[in-house]
Amino acid sequence: MEILILGIALFFGIHSLKPVFPQQRLLIIERIGSIPYKLIYALIAAVGLGLMVYGYIYGPYDLLWAPLPAALLVTFGLMIPAALFLVGADFPTNWGKAVKHPMMIGTLLWAVAHLWSNGHTKGVLLFGSFGIYAIFMLYKADWNITVKPRPLFLNILWLVVSVLAYFGIRYLHTL
Question: pLDDT tens digit string along 28-73?
């Protein structure tokens, strides 16, 4: 469990620099340069992510609650809009950008969906940390973002890619 917690601390610690310590982050970038900062940032985030995955896979399975029988249906239902938001975050669409912060909304939906169907300690730590981070980032977010209109075909392509991503990830969960 310690490895999972260390991974969570590294991953979310480095991701929290900009919203929590913006001035200190800028001073670090000024001192070491943008490229070294980005390399160090990426390395710490990757190590944190790797430790989270390892800690989740190999951590003890301590059940806190038994998921309800319909938990998987709720999870599948929440994952469809989560996929739409997560794909919409980096897709040039009207809808995906109009909601302002689709990545954090999608992350929050993903976290709630997985908390709903995973009642073990390591699941609560992993998915709960993502949910708390998403709520924090939504609180700190700039909501005055403007969206420029995009062609209709990009919106249709976004829907297709989102649905394919959803079913692809569902398939990977069966392996």
Answer: 999 999 999 999 999 999 999 999 999 999 999 999 988 888 888 8
pLDDT tens for 2-29 read: 999 999 999 999 999 999 999 999 999 9
Residues 6+ apart with CB under 8 A from 84: 96, 102, 106, 158, 159, 162
Task: Tell me the Ramachandran region of residue 100: left when phi exceeds 0, alpha when psi lies from -120 to 50, beta otherwise.
Answer: left
Encoding tokens for residue 156?
Answer: 């249709």
CA distance 58 to 138: 31
Q: Which amino acid is at 43?
A: L
The helix (H) or strand (E) run that includes residue 55 is: helix 34-58
DSSP category for residue 120? B
pTM of the entire predicted model: 0.88
Half-sphere exposure of 79 (CA within 13 A, CB side): 20
